[in-house]
Design brief:
210 residues; mainly alpha; 77% helix; 0% strand
């Protein structure tokens, strides 16, 4: 059978089979585990009520949730054989473009002497470890679910699953993080998220290949 015909047959089989009820349950359980880790290890920042009224704080979950939704949609698409990102690539570019804009605005209004302190913040190492930790249960669930699908681009599917998981973990971490500078978020959140995406790509190559 030709490759194109095989892919079409697999896609038709996926359309014909009933929805996997366990998939939603598995994702819900992994989200509960991540939330429990957040509560046990971090918890919300002490001034959360006041922070919710500030634009720099609100920008953090806007960025991470936007990235997470785009990555989730892309992962669902790539789970199908022969699928391409297409319009989802634009969605994935939303968070980086918005983050770059926020950094440019901050640099235009922040004194040069304070750039270094804002960039480094107070919790860079915590950020680099907390986001992957919170993302781990979600990534494990996502890879397990993708194993029951038929992605023909396993590395990319795994990487996008990592992006979605890390974005969810970063959304939780944002409510603990005291560093609201766009410089901090664009650097350390990005490094943590890309690290999880890299792990997802490795997992995809290892466990999602046909």
């Amino acid at each position: 059978m030709r490759t194109d015909a095989l892919i079409e047959t697999l896609a038709n089989d996926l359309d014909a089979r009933p929805a996997r009820r366990g998939g939603t349950a598995l994702l819900a359980v992994s989200a509960i585990v991540s939330a429990a880790l957040f509560a046990a290890l971090l918890g919300p920042r002490a001034d959360l009520s006041a922070a919710l009224a500030t634009a720099p704080f609100v920008a953090k979950p806007v960025l991470t949730v936007g990235l997470g939704l785009a990555a989730l949609g892309a992962a669902r698409r790539l789970a199908r054989p022969g699928a391409r990102l297409e319009g989802w690539a634009i969605g994935l570019a939303f968070a980086p473009l918005l983050a770059s804009t926020l950094v440019a605005v901050e640099l235009a209004h922040r004194p040069l002497a304070t750039w270094g302190a804002a960039w480094l913040g107070d919790n860079a190492l915590v950020c680099l470890t907390a986001i992957p930790t919170l993302a781990a249960p979600l990534l494990a669930a996502a890879i397990l679910l993708l194993r029951h699908e038929a992605p023909t681009r396993p590395r990319l599917a795994g990487a996008v699953a990592g992006l979605a998981s890390a974005a969810a973990g970063a959304s939780l971490y944002a409510f603990h993080c005291q560093d609201d500078s766009a410089l901090f978020v664009a650097t350390w959140y990005t490094l943590a998220i890309l690290g999880v995406a890299g792990i997802g790509a490795i997992a995809g190559h290892r466990w999602l290949r046909w």
